[in-house]
Design a protein that fits this description.
Shape: globular
Number of strands: 14
Radius of gyration: 18 Å
Helix content: 25-40%
Strand order of the largest sheet: 10-9-8-11-12-14-13
CATH superfamily of the largest domain: Vaccinia Virus protein VP39
Structural class: alpha/beta
Strand content: 25-35%
Largest sheet: 7 strands, mixed
CATH architecture of the largest domain: 3-Layer(aba) Sandwich
CATH class of the largest domain: Alpha Beta
Order of helices and strands: EHEEHEHEEEHEHEHEEHEHEE
């Protein structure tokens, strides 16, 4: 693997309720992907930018963090990383992750032999969000393991690494469409789908889900942020088959009731689940 250059990591650390806003700040600064982390009771959003842009990003984030600080405590940090070294260290730190009764998430080229009945999903750690270890991803994976019975069509909005769409296909879904506004995520989702042998069943689409003419689906999944989930409810309802299900996460525990109200107002009967200070809902269209 050849060196692809020096990058600078920028992190905004805040309380869980402020994480959505912190991640949005990084996206508005031009981040291709934002990694969400737990940090001893706090939450951290991390994004990487080319070091040549460091001065511009530093000034932009300092101003944005000052604005966020009016609502939540916010700390900023940055450090320089060689991208190849960072990815290699991340890959070495990952281990197989068991989800529910059947799913096993495997990092990169980790050698693993699934037991009878287990379903393995292999995700190559990259710059797009979604290696399976964040509580929001785990909650969505748990719902998918329970809800996918075989033959479904799935839409994955904000796909990141493609992990949710790929897991749905490996669990028995017939076809999936993975949507993201980030070209890096769209590329990584395609590559991960090929690694898992579901490349022909997964279509990747670049752009805003709300503006797309997409086929109807039996299940839509979105692991994004509360404000984005609420904005998606009407267009998701338009794209769901009768009785279809919307699985949504990226929501801190304190926002669960607001999420439920949004689902109910859009005509869904929803159930909440919580893990590690985060929540996910699965709503069936009435």
């Amino acid at each position: 693997m050849g060196s692809r250059g020096i990058w600078r990591a920028f992190a905004l650390t805040t309380v869980p309720d402020g994480l959505e806003a912190a991640a949005e700040v990084l996206r508005e600064a031009g981040a291709g992907g934002v990694r969400l982390e737990d940090a001893d009771g706090w939450a951290r959003a991390v994004a990487h930018f080319p070091s040549v842009e460091a001065d511009r990003i530093e000034k932009k984030l300092a101003a944005a963090a000052a604005d966020l600080g009016r609502f939540w405590p916010v700390e900023t940090a940055s450090w320089e990383e060689d991208e190849d070294k960072w990815l290699e260290a991340w890959r070495r730190s990952l281990r197989p992750l068991r989800v529910g009764r059947r799913l096993v998430i495997l990092p990169g080229d980790f050698v693993f032999s699934p037991a009878p009945g287990e379903v393995a999903v292999r995700i190559r750690p990259g710059m797009a969000f979604g290696t399976g270890d964040h509580p929001t991803t785990l909650l969505c994976l748990g719902w998918l393991e329970e809800l996918i019975r075989g033959g479904e069509t799935v839409l994955d909005v904000g796909t990141g690494s493609g992990i949710l769409a790929i897991a749905a296909l490996r669990l028995g879904a017939r076809a999936a469409v993975a949507v993201d506004v980030d070209p890096l995520a769209e590329r990584e989702a395609r590559e991960n789908a090929a690694v898992n042998g579901v490349g022909q069943a997964l279509a990747t689409v670049l752009g805003d889900f709300r503006e797309m003419d997409l086929p109807s689906a039996d299940l839509v999944v979105a692991n994004i942020f509360l404000s984005q989930v609420l904005a998606l409810l009407p267009p998701v309802r338009e794209r769901l088959s009768p009785g279809g299900i919307f699985v949504a996460s990226g929501v801190s525990a304190g926002q669960g009731e607001e999420l439920l109200r949004g689902f109910a107002g859009a005509g869904f009967q929803a159930e909440l689940r919580e893990a590690g200070g985060w929540m996910a809902a699965a709503g069936r269209m009435l």
